[in-house]
Amino acid sequence: PKVIKLSEYKKPDYLVETIDLVLHLDNTKTLVQSTMKIKRNTDEVTPLILNGEELVLKSIKLNNETYTDYVHSTENHSLTLNKVPAEFTLMIENEINPEANKTLDGLYKSGTIFCTQNEPEGFRRITFYVDRPDNMAKFTTKIVADKKLYPILLSNGNPIARGDLEGGKHFVTWEDPFKKPAYLYALVAGDLGVIKDTFKTKSGRNVALEIYCDKGNENKCHHAMESLKKSMKWDEDRFGLEYDLDIYMIVAVDAFNMGAMENKGLNIFNSAYVLADQKSATDTNFYGIESVIGHEYFHNWTGNRITCRDWFQLTLKEGLTVFRDQEFSADMNSRSVERIQSVMGLRAAQFAEDAGPTSHPIKPATYMEINNFYTATIYEKGAEVIRMIQTLLGVDGFRKGMDKYFELFDGQAVRTEDFIHAMSVANNNFDFTQFKNWYGQNGTPLLKATSKYDEAAKRFTLTLTQTLPANAPKDAKAYHMPVRVGLIDSTGKDIASKVLELKETTQDFVFENITSKPIASVNREFSAPVKLTTDLTFDEQLFLMAHDSDSFNRFEAAQVVSTKLILDLIEDAKAKRTFELNSKYVEAFGKILADNTIDEAFKALSMSIPGEGVLHQEQAEIAYPETEAVRTFVKKTLATAHQDTLVKLYKSIEQKEYKLDPKSMGQRDLKNKCLDLLSYVEGGKYNSLAFDHFKAATNMTDEIGALTTIVHANSVHKDEALKAFYDKWKHETLVMQKWLTVQASASDESTYDAILKLEKDAVYDRTIPNLVRALLGQFVATNKVQFNHPSGRGYKLIADRLLELDKLNPQVASRLASGFKDFKRTPKVLQDLMRPELERIIKTDGLSKNVYEIVSKILG
Ligand code: B3K
Ligand code: ZN
């Protein structure tokens, strides 16, 4: 496959000014009629090359005359019109087969619903087009369809005409007044349920809000609607940004490759990010819905009004919009919990990606398949980079920069440099020259903090040293990073707190008038996305764990301590030495449990034992079973030592009524964490506690929490609970996805056979990405011991499935392929089992470029 390079960017030779579409919807033969006003965009006279994939060409007319001087290459996915004037009208008719389209890109069917997904390059599967984001046009769409089967017909913008047609058909015409790239185009048709509401904008306009779903699910859309209204209000308050159309629509569909899509005025969502009620959705689901509804809404300004010049700029809209949704979640819930969760997610996914074979900068320079670049790096690290800009400029300075960005670039397709330019000119020409290294260099930087205290001079010196990671580019340069630091005295009080700007490789930062030796709390709020090491002693870390005023670093201290202990124990395990868990740590853990001044949500987070993925990152050669064994040992030791406290804590939390506020969510999390930890106590002593919790559950957080504990502990109640859950929920696919996940992630030997059986269950369907992710995706990502089984059966299973899926949906297949990313750090005996599978994949005829790009990088 061809490598696309940022350095070879050329502006389009032709631009589409307007496009009027007529779609005659049909399951297998949808006729698309497109009328475009096109203008040459260069001085030279060049052929017009349109993108088109899986399209049956019917006719071409140029300025109303039949046109024949063209080449349609199905292999190159292009339609070349050899000779065209400088300005003309082009009419193209083509046919598509939505029902056969399992890629879930372009126009396809999700159950009985017609829907679209066009980012990044799906529109070329609907009709021939200059399908790139710097081609912005005005769209109108007339949808023609059977009235009974498809009473609801939606597209972007405002409806301007509708009526009945013969043969039981009807039509609706939509007009989007805003110019947009084709990736933001959307169409939906179906017999849908809907809930409606309105929002009054700050300038007093009324916006109609509509959320569509499968009939019968309407009562599960209310949380999404509330989240939408909160998002609209928040963007006005925080960034002064108002919605710009008279209607905002969201449609929930079951078959969707990603979480959701920000199409102008017509978001299309994975139903998992819309539908929720107390009985069937967890607190994590509710939280996720609020965040994704916000994310897609915020795209209306950061993504739609100002879009990307080319796909190398993807982080321009994604990093910025993730930052915005994180801030929204922080304001709507608990800021400290939000920050801790975001950083845990960043570490688990992005740090791992950035250290592996598919590591790339937030602004990559090359790609084969752009769909492979919707990554944790572009999104989450991209958001961290934006956050650093805010930390450097301050919240007000950042807001000024955002205002400037819209003033300069509204309605345009721009680059990350343009964003930085706006931030700079709005802030006294702040110098971002060195900061820009964050955009072009991959890898997670290492930061070391050491300190000296001069008692006589009352001077504290903090030395910060940055090191580039081993996989950084050869010519990589030092970063400009904001490091938020606090100095804490022996009573736990902050005596200094500021943001240090590290620009050199090593820099000393001097604090004067420090009257007693302080402890430095470095990189508070995780102000720079780095791997930090310090010269703090174990006892000093425990002190921070108890006293740091920065809640992130208080959480972090516990993670640092437990990570270190666990890694040492893994060495013991490898050398077959007996384990012993540091008693000071066991004691400190108990203090947190017993401390009534710590709120429940924070306590629950503090109980997290570093995840397998995070621990694997620290190992040159990954010891899969030992890592798992040590984690289990640590939990067992903590649980056994503190079982009385845990039971007491568990019982102390009583919820009379179900509420969704941060406090109530924190309580449920804590309760479930206690239950889970208790399941590690020898002899199944707390099995019945978990089973009772399961049976008494009145909400999904408790129900699935208990089921997970029961299954993962291999409790005697496992089969009974799994069956009861299945019988109760088998008709709800979103809940069945949880049921699959619980089983796929159980590290038990029996999981492999369970997966083979589950694939045959009536609730499973491999054409629905959510189900594949729930079963196979979970297995690869979270069941490291079974995926890396010494027989090699885990590798073979996933390679088989991946190759089957690649024929249907290359995007889903390619995500599974990245599950092999630890190949080079896997022990040699396992590598010898993994390699043949990877080679079998890459030698497969007709392999997608999605999978090819990932697997070729893994094999290196
Ligand atoms: N922009 C979409 C992602 C589209 C992914 C295409 N493979 C969702 C989002 O980031 O909001
Ligand atoms: Zn996005």
Structure characterization notes:
This protein is α+β, with helices and mostly antiparallel strands. Among the domains are: 1-190, tricorn interacting facor f3 domain (Immunoglobulin-like, Sandwich), CATH 2.60.40; 307-440, Neutral Protease Domain 2 (Neutral Protease, domain 2, Orthogonal Bundle); 446-528, Aminopeptidase N, middle-beta domain (Immunoglobulin-like), CATH 2.60.40; 730-860, Zincin-like fold (Alpha Horseshoe), CATH 1.25.50.10. The strands form 9 sheets. It has an 8-stranded mixed β-sheet with strand order 6-5-9-3-2-12-15-14, with no helix packed on it. A 5-stranded mixed β-sheet has the order 17-18-19-21-20, covered by helices on one side. A 4-stranded mixed β-sheet has the order 29-26-25-31, with no helix packed on it. The longest helix has 34 residues, at 376-409. The mean pLDDT is 98. (3S)-3,7-diaminoheptanoic acid (B3K) binds next to strand 20 and helix 2.
